[in-house]
Design brief:
heterodimer; A: mainly alpha; three-stranded antiparallel beta sheet; globular; B: 36% helix; 29% strand
Chain lengths: 133, 245
Amino acid sequence: MIDEPPSSADLDAVLRVISDRERRFALYYLRERESTSVERLADVVGTWLAVEDGTAPAGVEERDRLLRALRETHLPELADIGLLDYDRETGTATLIPPCGVVDPLLETIASLEHATRVPPSAEAAAARNDRAL
Amino acid sequence: MSLAEFVDEVADRRKRITVYGPEPPEDVSDLFETWNVTVDYEHLPTAPEDAFITVHEGEEFLGGVSAAALSTLTTPTVGDPWGESDREESYRELLELLDDTLFFSQNRRQLLATSREFEERAWRHGTGGLHATFQSEAAFGPQTEVYGRLAGQSDLSVHVYAPDDWRPVEAAPEWAPSTDGVHWHHAEAAELRRTWLVAYDGGSDPEQKCALVAFDDDGGEYEGFWTYDPGLVEEIIGYLQRNYA
């Protein structure tokens, strides 16, 4: 669906769908694996986000919430805009290559996910520097 | 039946650990090299400090934790059972993630930290039975005050099991006052000379049940497991009571 140049409607849809962090991290994992079960996606993305947020260990409850969200919302939405195939019968998500404009877009956002995150230690260091000044 | 059979039973359960990160972290593979687990690696473009692991038993997801947090397994903090710290909290979470897993370890500090965690659990809960075996006088010596306080300053029923020829109250009378309230059980059994065991029956709360069982191979390496499985903990304590109490 997303061939270059994308229509502005396509771009709107893509930006809306990937404005959700859980969907983006699901895409980051799929870019590595291409195809995976929705369960595995929930295990990996759930833990990854918990580690990023400093709330690890990731427990089963949060993973089950994410699993439902992936099945009911995230994967169908990503499939609707043509970024992946989602087979509800087998519970398999498969990335659709090539991702056209989305690939460089995700690449850029992925690098920002880390850059915009302020780890607690850096915050503390910044506070110390403030006091020093 | 022997204590070793509990270990054999746990050996049949095998967990699968998958490591995710920008590169295969050697320390994680080294850490689990002697454990009864399968370790796989999958590349993922996380920040290096955000590498993480997931733990599965069969297809069942048990949990996930950052790879960095695993270092507390090899270098845990060993405090008093009545102390509290954030580090102990993260250690407790790791123990829960990796329970019922056979390990081989030369790391006495790790066994001590796990024992402490279970003693602390008993202390916090304050009622019920705490059971511990000590291989020798040398093993019990440093724990004298801890066990004296556990027995004397709570409603816990504290049972210590030791080889027959080692009767600390007679051998070291200076310990007697501080271990007042400890129920001693002596038996001539080879397994008591090589067992490191701490088990807490949870008092009124089965969710609090926990046990550590490890065997010294005489070369300073321990083989064992810890568990929060209420049925298994009950079996272990039942075994001690039937044979040694």
